[in-house]
Amino acid sequence: MKNIIVGIDFSPNSINALKHAVAISLKSGGALHLVWVKSPSTKRIIDTDIKENISQIVQTKLSELLKDCKAEAPKSEARSVILEGKPANEMIKYASNLTDSLIVIGTHGASGFEEMFVGSNAFKIVSMSPVPVMVLREGIQINRDLTQILVPIDTSFETLQKMKYAIKFAKAFSAKILLLGVISEQPETKHIVSVQLGHAMRMLEQANIRHDWTSIEIKGNISKEVVDFAKKLDVNLMIIMREEEQEFSDFWLGTTTRQILNSTPMPLLIIPNITHFAITR
Questions:
Q1: CA distance to 17, 34, 253, per residue, from 105 (Å)
Q2: Among 226, 179, 172, which Cα is nearest to 201's?
Q3: Predicted confidence (pLDDT) per residue in 181-196, tens digit
Q4: Whether residue 159 has pLDDT greater than 60
Q5: DSSP state of 206
Q6: Helix (H, G, I), strand (E, B), or coil: what is residue 164?
Q7: Contact assessment for residue 268 and residue 135, using Cβ atoms and an 8 Å cutoff
Q8: 51 band by pLDDT with thresholds 50, 70 and 90
Q9: 232 Cβ contact partners less than 8 Å away, ≥ 6 residues apart
Q10: CB burial class (10 A; 0-12, 13-18, 19+) of residue 44?
Q11: Are 179 and 199 in contact (CB under 8 A)?
Q12: Cα separation of 219 and 45, whole Å?
């Protein structure tokens, strides 16, 4: 991760996301970009008396955060950026113009400065971003030194795209990867998932990454069963694809994605389907 873009709205959630981003920067050497977006809703929410000085106020606040970043990661490059427009669009545009970038965001804000990444903006970033997005839901205070990374593997070809990023994080943090075969009740999925797990394990062996694997047969709510599994193993990062096999698309993209973001006690790294982008472009 050469460039780590952090969505800042000065809420406790965005500050928590920044702390995780700093930990990633420390391990990977990636540059930190603290991004605040002046949006139309900002103008409506911020007190009329300070509208004219909003950029100056924000820059002062960002400078304070930069000092904290430098204190914790003195060797990391860090900069602050103020953009204007729709938060999701501007964040994605900014990240897309950088090489090997990662977006890190919290999922909830409240009022004033804190309105930037409330609800739909986080999901817009997740659904539209051509670069990976790490999402931390409200209240996540997990150990930032990643030791166990969970990578669900299903029947889709795209599922193996996660492995590139899983290996990057595992190398940076000297972490162990836990592969989880996700099997539906359809008989043919067991063999397909087994083959995919084999491919994934060979990739990890070639990269000299510590790993283990297991499989679960999904009988109920897929998000609940995967999250429950992650909780039992005390996982502190889960990596999923944004675009998966059709039968799992509701899990990774639809309402169940909201369920997992609302219930998972660990950060979630969501990887875009590069095949999808290659076709649509």
A1: 6, 11, 17
A2: 179
A3: 999 888 889 999 999 9
A4: yes
A5: H
A6: helix
A7: yes
A8: low
A9: none
A10: exposed
A11: no
A12: 46
Per the listing, tokens 């928590």 go with 16
Ranges of beta strands (E only) in the chain are 3-7, 31-38, 78-84, 101-106, 133-136, 148-153, 176-183, 211-217, 237-241, 268-271
Rounded Cα gap, residues 125 and 133, in angstroms = 8
Question: 181 forms bridges with which residues in the sheet?
Answer: 153, 215
Please state, for a pLDDT cut of 90, what percent of the chain lies above it. 54
Q: Which pLDDT tens digit goes with each residue over 231-272?
A: 998 898 999 987 533 444 444 445 556 677 777 888 999 998
Which neighbouring-strand residues pair with 101?
A: 3
What's the CA gap between 47 and 54, in Å, rounded? 10
First to last CA, the chain: 24
67's CB contacts (< 8 A; 6+ apart) are: none
Strands ordered across the beta sheet of 268-271: 78-84, 31-38, 3-7, 101-106, 133-136, 268-271, 237-241, 148-153, 176-183, 211-217
Task: Read off the tokens for 3.
Answer: 């460039």
Q: Please report, for the chain, how many H helices and E strands are present, in that order.
A: 11, 10
Contact yes or no for 261/107 (Cβ under 8 A): yes
Q: What is the largest CA-CA distance in the chain?
A: 65
